[in-house]
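Hi R.,

As promised on Friday, here is the backbone we talked about, encoded as structure tokens. Could you run it through your design pipeline when you get a chance and send me back a sequence?
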């Protein structure tokens, strides 16, 4: 395990560093281990970047957990952070835009895409041309519930990677391109993916902790344990965008979120 952490540390650093441009760039930032590790590495390399976090902010609603963590981590580790706080009406407008850009109406695609789109728009306003995402980490390090339920964790990782283009990449690239941005994904660098798929599944999910080996590697690289071990929900939940979709569904007198999103097309 110590050898794996050592090798993985080197590969992750290399994957992030090779993607970092000379110019100022953006990072889609949720305060999870993936985006925090990208920002932490860029900061250690003394690179110039802005972190972007999108969240629902409505009177009477508890603060979105991703927003809470993003602000705390950025302050603690010295990252420049811009937050995009949307009310229900603004979320509805972004849902329409996301549907228009992606051509999709399924709840997950639009929920996740609606956290990404406002961040990309803000990055464009800031003159940013390159934006980073932690996409791919969940697949190669087993971050989903289906990995936990799988008989063979690495087979499930491979299966997920085979579907990642249609499920995630097409959406994120379409949104980035719409805003004149280039999307960079260090966790999908071939060398890192090849190595990660050889790591035994018992190190990917251990003691009920998903992405265990990545979290241990992040600690080894110097990331505070509190942030490396943070248990994070998917973007649409951590940002409360899914919560907004549910509220809007009810507001329009509909029962299912899927029906509401189809009505926006």
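Update: got your reply. Pasting your designed sequence below so it's all in one thread:
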């Amino acid at each position: 395990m110590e050898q794996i952490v050592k090798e993985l540390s080197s590969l992750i650093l290399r994957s992030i560093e090779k993607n970092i441009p000379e110019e100022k760039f953006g990072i889609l930032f949720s305060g999870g281990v993936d985006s925090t590790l990208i920002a932490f590495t860029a900061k250690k390399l003394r690179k110039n970047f802005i972190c972007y976090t999108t969240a629902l902010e409505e009177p009477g609603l508890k603060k979105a957990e991703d927003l809470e963590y993003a602000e705390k981590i950025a302050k603690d580790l010295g990252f420049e952070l811009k937050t995009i706080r949307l009310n229900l009406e603004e979320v509805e407008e972004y849902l329409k835009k996301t549907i228009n850009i992606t051509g999709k109406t399924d709840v997950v695609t639009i929920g996740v895409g609606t956290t990404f789109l406002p961040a990309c728009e803000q990055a464009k306003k800031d003159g940013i041309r390159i934006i980073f995402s932690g996409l791919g980490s969940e697949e190669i390090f087993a971050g989903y519930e289906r990995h936990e339920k799988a008989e063979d964790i690495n087979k499930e990782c491979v299966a997920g990677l085979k579907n990642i283009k249609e499920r995630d990449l097409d959406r994120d690239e379409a949104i980035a391109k719409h805003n004149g941005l280039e999307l960079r994904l260090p966790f999908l660098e071939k060398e890192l993916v090849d190595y990660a798929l050889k790591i035994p599944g018992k190190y990917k999910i251990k003691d009920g902790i998903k992405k265990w080996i990545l979290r241990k590697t992040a600690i080894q690289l110097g990331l505070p344990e509190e942030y490396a071990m943070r248990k994070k929900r998917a973007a649409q939940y951590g940002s409360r965008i899914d919560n907004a979709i549910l509220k809007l569904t009810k507001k329009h007198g509909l029962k299912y979120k899927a029906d509401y999103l189809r009505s926006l097309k």
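One thing I noticed while checking it: Strands lie at 25-28, 49-56, 81-86, 130-132, 182-184.

Thanks again,
M.
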